[in-house]
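General statements about sequence and structure are easier to judge against a single worked case. For one protein, we set the task of working out the structure tokens from the amino acid sequence alone. This step matters because it turns folding into a mapping between discrete strings. The amino acid sequence and the backbone structure tokens for this protein are reproduced below.
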Amino acid sequence: MSEALFDKYGGVETLTPLVREFYKRIMATPNLARYFINTDMEVLIRHQVQFIAVVMGKPAAFYEGMDMEAAHQNSNISDRSFEDVIDVLEETLRDFEVEELDIIEIIDKAKSLKKEIVS
């Protein structure tokens, strides 16, 4: 993805409400919400905005969180839960009117992280 994709959708100002909505939907899904018990959601949202910004073309240094494997190593995330998160992400991107080809690119990038997230 290019820097233009990050800018195309309004940068951090657009990503922040998108990520907030994504986690609102995650927390409304019982089999997914359980992974976030005792999680500071504001910190998580901030890191996720940074991460998605990098996925959408910002330099890697923009992301200040842990690497994916370290962040998820004790989470016991199942294949099914991973796929459910992907579905929620895809739905949220559509509701925020992200173009289909861009959704495919973002989802492909997210799916490429599966082996680092699923335990």
Observations:
- The chain has a mean pLDDT of 87.
- The longest helix spans residues 11-27.
